[in-house]
Known about the structure:
Elements: H1 2-17, H2 29-32, H3 44-55, E1 59-64, E2 69-72, H4 78-93, E3 99-103, E4 107-113, E5 116-122, H5 128-151
Antiparallel strand pairs: 1-2, 1-5, 3-4, 4-5
Helix pairs in contact: 3-5
Amino acid sequence: MNRIFASMLTKLSNKVLNLEDLRTPKELEPLLEYRAVNLCSKNLDDFLLKLRKKHLVNHIIITDLEGIVIASTEKDLKEGFKSAAMYNYINTEIKDLSIILIESKGWNIIFKYSDKVYFIKANGSLSRTEVYAIVNDLENYLKVIKWNLWVK
């Protein structure tokens, strides 16, 4: 009796949960395809838009430590000033910060690298490695731009 009940319950749960159907729905297949993002750009704003698309983040803002916006994917420059001010305030309270994560309508990530403060908004959380990858791409681009300006 218990075997019959167990087999019926197993069949019912497999139908309800679709455990045997592990195929990707056709609607999601285009989203899961790998598409290389060409980051080559002569314009910093265009590069930021491409980088934003590559790393699937909403906004990227780069400021110096005083809050002066170096580059941004947002039109509102106040956001960059606020992120630098927030980083400086929290850094006075808690020394040697590496990264600040704030969850409010998505994730706000504030990260200091060398003499710049990076502010990244994303719908999902980013790992430290992903943040480093974004910052590394940006720093490499800024070095190339600086080198090209110096050579000319």
